[in-house]
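task queued by scheduler; priority normal; single chain, no ligands, no partner chains; default sampling; output format set to structure tokens
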Amino acid sequence: MGGNLVDGIIRAGTQEIAKGKTYFLRDDWQVTWGKYISDLGAMIGKKPRGNIPFGLAWATGYAMEKIFTPLKIRPPLTRIAAGVMGRNNDVDASLARKELGWETKVSYEQAMEEIEKWVKIYIA
């Protein structure tokens, strides 16, 4: 699992041109967060229950952090989760492609199969 990321890390760690530079590694899959979450949920027999506007998710995450954290309970929704799931967090991987020769080799389908194997071993 992680073939694309591991390949990028090895390239960045072993190529002279990479010294002192930062590279973003982002697969070229055209997959939305909604599809990804739905696919992950299907692995454990669950479906997303819908979605809410970003501002409401952010405010709810804030409130849940204030309520649950002092009780040493993990909040069911946090601002960081809202930020990750509710925004386009895309990055430009063109420098890694150009300088390191990095490219997506493992397809989305292959990656999801690997994740499913892991889920069946450790979660199911």
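post-processing summary
- The chain has a mean pLDDT of 93.
- The two ends are 18 Å apart (CA to CA).
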